[in-house]
Amino acid sequence: MMNLQKKMYDVVVVGTGAAGMSAAIEAAQKGASVLLVEKGRHPGGSSNYTEGLFAVDSYLQKAANISVSGTAVLKEEVGYSKFRADSRIWRQYIDSSATTVAWLHDLGVEYEGVQAMGAGEATWHIYKGMGDQVINHVMLPKAKELGVEVLTSTAAIGLEKTANGAISGVELRDESNAETQTVAAKAVILGTGGYLNNPEMMAKLTHYDTKRLIPVSSGKGTGDGLRMAWKIGAQQYGTGMAMLFGGYLRDPSQPSFAYMASQMNAAATCQPLLWVNENGERFVDESVVYNFSYAGNALYTQNKVFSILDQSVIDRMITKGNFMGLGVYVKRGQLMDKLQDELDQAVAAAKPFIFKADSITELAKKMGVSVSQLEKTVTDYNQAAASGEDQLFGKDPEYLQPLKEGPFYGFALDNGAFCTMGGLKVTPNNEVLDEQGQLINGLYAVGNDATGLAGDTYGPNMPGTCVGYAFYSGRNSGAHAAAYLKK
Fold first, then answer.
1. Closest to 93 in 3D by CA, of 486, 483, 467
2. What's the confidence (pLDDT) of residue 118?
3. Which residues neighbour 86 within 8 Å (Cβ) at sequence distance 6 or greater?
């Protein structure tokens, strides 16, 4: 059986990502006894792969003379969500964001600096060592120092309520032997990371073709917290959104996250150059890649999508740098010094996503698209590049790079996704509401289990908002759970 130190805890936190870890530390700092459970063998979940968090008016931004209006951010993000986001939640999140950056620094987190993504604002506070360093080497030791009891390989599988509907406990399962045990708790905080890795929930709750979706995450986001809460009457709300990040290469022989740092993947999927559909036609202004959520939507408008590069563009990226990178993994403008080797290795290994040919005619045959249509598309595209005007979709001339020099490379693009966001309706205090809009006393949802931050897509113009909200909402719920206990 699980070796629990107590029969009752003030707070049980489910999930050890940025949200759960922040909740546990904040509640413990406020004097609560805390049990933190993680179904995986190692803490952190998908937060381990994160690069940095959003903030406005932080000490780092002030030192760099970066000024971003919090109210302008709120208006942009809520408008971008088509007003599906909760303005109250955004207001509190923005106003607390600088404090969250400082709180993490006080715990021991070190930052590399502040930067933007694509054409967005410089709100992204990059931490050293990625999320793994933050979660496992700073926050986890701090939690234990504060007396938080941490159990890994322990899944939460059910919630218990009193006769008057308040939370009274959690049913836990030891993942090593499947034994179960119910532990008494006055409050429970759910930070289980959404449901991207649950194919049944994705098929039922979203409109995405999951056969073309590549989850790039820890694999642990299977909707555990949502399903437990829904079962006891929590309101199902805000489902259907996944954080698409545009094209990604599917390689069945590798774990999905293996290509995050690949220069070939960045060159194939993130450049605002030529995309064609299953018929060999252009279908969009490819500079949509500067908003990776929009790029994901654009890819889904076609049945298949290929990106095409010629040798001159590849050489340009090697000697002068790429047009658009992939976050911090492959930085924008980075010299692609490994690109040619990665391409050669992929071709030699006959990877299913890559096609190489000495002519556009041969490339069309290898990709299985119409030869005549692809030849026409490339001819028209090269004419647009020569004239400096894309009469079809109005793309910036900077990205009209002609395809003239063989060999030519085609890449089959699937759609990458980092996470889902939403599922439980919460108050600005991260308290979970039932189907009638009333509080389920003692139940909180944080991070990607909570609804209120996004509409149908994520807003990458303010990078770091997802993990930033995880840290913030964790702290917010921990503080409010501690206050609830005192009542």
1. 467
2. 64
3. 428, 451, 452, 453
Q: How many residues does the chain have?
A: 487
How far from 215 is each of 71, 248, 265, CA to CA, in Å?
A: 33, 10, 15
Pairing of strands 431-433, 408-412: unpaired
Summarize pLDDT for 318-332 with one digit per residue, the tens: 999 999 888 778 888
487's CB contacts (< 8 A; 6+ apart) are none
What pLDDT, in 10s, does the model give residues 356-411?
999 999 999 999 999 999 999 999 999 999 999 999 999 999 999 999 999 999 99
**441: helix, coil or strand?**
strand
In this structure, what token pair is assigned to residue 22? 């922040």
Q: Could you tell me the two tokens for 217?
A: 């995450």
This prediction has a pTM of 0.95
Cα–Cα distance for residue pair 168/170, rounded to 1 Å: 7
Residue type, position 431, single letter: E
CB 418 within 8 A of CB 217: yes
Mean pLDDT (whole number) for 179-198: 98
Task: Give 180-224 as a DSSP string.
Answer: EEEEEEEEEEE----STT-HHHHHHH--S-GGGEEE-S-S--SSH
Which are the contacts of 38, defined by CB distance < 8 A and separation ≥ 6?
A: 15, 16, 20, 45, 150, 151, 152, 153, 154
Tokens describing residue 319: 């000697």
Q: Is 189 within 8 Å of 442 (Cβ atoms)?
A: no
pLDDT tens-digit series, residues 401-449: 999 999 999 999 999 999 999 999 999 999 999 999 999 999 999 999 9
